[in-house]
Amino acid sequence: MTETNILPEVIEAPVSGYDAFSLETLHDVHTFDGEQREIAPVVYMEKYGYYAITRYAEIQKALRDWRTFSSTDRPFYAPSAFRPRTLILEDPPEHTASKSAVFKVFDAGNLAKMSAYFKAEAERLIDDLLTDGPAEINAYNDLSVKYVLKVFPDVLGLPEEGRELLLKFGDAVFNVFGPPSELQAAKLASGTEAMEWVESNTARNVQSEGGIGWQLYAMADEGKISEHTAQQILKSIFAAGFDTTTASIASMIRAFADNPGEWQKLRENPDLVDNAWEEAIRLYPASRYGGRWATKETVLGGVRIPEGAKILTMWLGAGRDPRQYDAPDEFRVDRDLKNAHLSFGFGIHTCAGNQVARLEARTLLRAMVERIEKIELIGEPRKTVNYQAFGHDYVPVRLTPAVSA
Ligand code: HEM
Fold it and tell me: What SUPFAM superfamilies would the database entry show (predicted)?
């Protein structure tokens, strides 16, 4: 018998005592999720009775097959006011209609309008920061939050007052899919403050004519989606569109502060801006995992997954899978990302706002590269502690302005 005739061996998922949600884990998710990745492509987390897909290739393979790896249920799923019941909790055909509605409001025409506005605001913000020469700032609050909470809510037509509640809302949303704990209770309590604001700012009657929300309700009038779905989609944008970008832009600045040589490389070759941003979110994804359930028994990476299994797709760990990337812990602005990364997910549920997130981040980075000579760390950065979201909420840096020609 030749080797090609040997059927691949199918094994049961290695049983792991891993607690993906303990405080110890949450303080160092890259190390701990990375350890699980090195055990097997799929592990069984005994403590919670859930499966975790840990490696790049297997996550990608699973997410190509939405019929087997359905999104309509997931570990720790319980209906929650913090989880808008649309898109991420839908499979086709419902999902197709909702996703088309989002793509329609983020079409080329709307993105082009956003692009010009984001650029003007990014440049203004950096110029303001550097008016008096070198600036010592917390890159999270003074740069990332300031920029994101200005440009995207403006585009959505949201009032100035209360915008910071979007971050509390997002922080709660990203703590829903995990076990009850003090941490979860605190995040949900804090998010509750945001609920009324979110509810009233996603209502039909407050949407400014021609704005994103108005366009969604117009689609409801045309019968393309329901009125309820229009509001749920708007809530999804509120839920997923702020914590993610603020955290990952702060993480990107940390990556540059840790690697001054990479900043110089980018200054010398600004064409690398887009690639540098993708590399930053490969290294520091804003979302640690997704959730699915197996609609039938299946085998992934040689590991059996039973019908009905609830599954975490651990894309933060997969972003540093050495089977996919050379020297995966290193930040290299010119890395050949080949198949990109999983930080925006993969398959039919790929991030619906990825174009907006990319536009925001790349535009800011371009404005920075043109204006900033040096980014230096002047203190210890702090990572966020959250079940599902990952990022930095404190990145103390000194920005030295470039001497203009
Ligand atoms: C750097 C910023 C962002 C990151 C890293 C990110 C990451 C992700 C990931 C990993 C998923 C897939 C979830 C899954 O398959 O389980 C996702 C889905 C989603 N994201 Fe984002 N996101 C970002 C920004 C945004 C923004 C700005 C918006 C809105 C404008 C947004 C809206 C959504 C929505 C609505 C979904 C659900 C898509 C679907 O189910 O088809 N995200 N995002």
Answer: Cytochrome P450
